[in-house]
Amino acid sequence: xxxNRRIFTTVxxxxxxxxxxxxxxxxVTSHDSTNVLNLTFKAKYNHSPAFTYFVIVEAIxxxxxxxxxxxSSKGSLWRMVIILDVVAALLLTSSMSAALAIAQVGKEGxxxxxxxxxxxxxxxxxxxxxxxxxxxxxxxxxxFVLNLLTxxxxxxxxxxxxxxxxPWEF
Amino acid sequence: xxxNRRIFTTVxxxxxxxxxxxxxxxxVTSHDSTNVLNLTFKAKYNHSPAFTYFVIVEAIxxxxxxxxxxxSSKGSLWRMVIILDVVAALLLTSSMSAALAIAQVGKEGxxxxxxxxxxxxxxxxxxxxxxxxxxxxxxxxxxFVLNLLTxxxxxxxxxxxxxxxxPWEF
Lengths: 170, 170
What we know:
2 copies of one chain form a homodimer.
Chain A lengths: L1 H27 L2 E6 L2 E6 L4 H22 L7 H31 L14 H33 L15
Antiparallel strand pairs in A: 1-2
Helix pairs in contact in A: 1-2, 1-4, 2-3, 3-4
């Protein structure tokens, strides 16, 4: 059971790593340009603070995840890793939500604010951003499942272990 | 020590409740209108999906937090509450990040995308949104500290309890 759990955790980490690396690469390589009334209109990820934040977080979590995968899974560091995993999930969710909010305006616009959609003009850029966001959402989901699994095992909320065996109290 | 910890946790929950309730009320009551070229330009929170998502999450977490505060702190439900608290922190961080990303465009605009800032026209609306976002950021911070504190106590990452006293393994 413990061995299966460890394999499942490693698979989740590998999937999350693939997702964050893809999200970083696809977002960084997103650029397009178009001509509107003789003016060249360029689109690049670093024109938006939310997309820049997204790239920074995805890159940091890729590095963190790689380090954790390379560390021995039998070390006593693993209790700290559970807390760091929660922080990683918060960062991934935050950056993905901010990027998604901006991408939604880019695709749909906002008539009330007078913000026009830009995807018609720079569709190549929009496709890249969509791809990066799908990878970012998957990464956040993998980390969410990883956290739920680890916390469930640690906290034993459905009393598989008797309550008095737990070394902490509230 | 345990009593102090419980008092600190309750204070954090009360602060988070005050922050989420304030964020909900201040965001929902935010509206303003202005005339540009004989056209009335109205601003309201539900004109943006990110702000609507923010209000829904802040309201849900207010309700959740109130229920947890009213429950007895000695019940055995508290292990599940730790997991639910992590989910609450993820939701708060996600909605706050999305709303912040849109508010940044509202305040600064985005010259690359041709999105003009709107805060000059609807400053009353912008002030309300800023207030709601400050409350939302505080709520996410209180929940972050609450999670760190609880997980630290449960996981004991710096070995105050001997490792072999812990009922779980990796």
